[in-house]
Amino acid sequence: MLIGELSRRTGVHTHQLRYYEAQGLLRPARGANGYREYDEDAVLRVRQIRHLLGAGLSSEDIAYLLPCATGEAPELIGCPELLAAMRSRLRRLDDQLGRLARSREALAGYIDAAERAGGGSYPPLTASAMAPCPA
C-alpha cells in the first residue's frame, strides 16, 4: 500500500509517517517508481508506535521497544533492553513530576500571600491579566 493508504487506515498524517521512517521506526520498500510501499504489518506497527508515543516514550525509546512489541496495544516482552529503556523513561517522568509539584506548591504559596496582602479574592488570571502590578 502507498503512504496515503497507510495514513487513511491509521489516521496518522503522511508527514508523521515520513518522520517515523526517518527515525527508523518504519521501513517501507520502494517501488520502481520510487514510491514508498508498505505491507500490511505497517498498519500494526504504526498503531504500536502511536500507543507508545501516548505513553510518553520518545522515538528513540520506541526504536528499542518495537522489537519486543506484539499486538496493537502493544504487549511488551520483557527483554533487558526494553526494561532498561522503560525504567529510564519512568525515572525522567518522576523527576518531571517532582519539579512540577514543587513549582505548583511555590505558585500556590505566592497566590495565598498575594490574596492575604490584598485583602480579597481576585478573578482567575488570564494571559491578558498577566500585566505588571501598579506601583
From TrEMBL:
SUPFAM superfamilies: Putative DNA-binding domain. It holds the Pfam family MerR_1. It comes from the Bacteria. CDD domains: HTH_MerR-like_sg3. Residues 1-68 form the HTH merR-type domain. Keywords: DNA-binding. PROSITE patterns: HTH_MERR_1 (PS00552), HTH_MERR_2 (PS50937). PANTHER family: HTH MERR-TYPE DOMAIN-CONTAINING PROTEIN, REDOX-CYCLING DRUG-SENSING TRANSCRIPTIONAL ACTIVATOR SOXR. This is HTH-type transcriptional regulator HmrR. It comes from Nonomuraea coxensis DSM 45129.
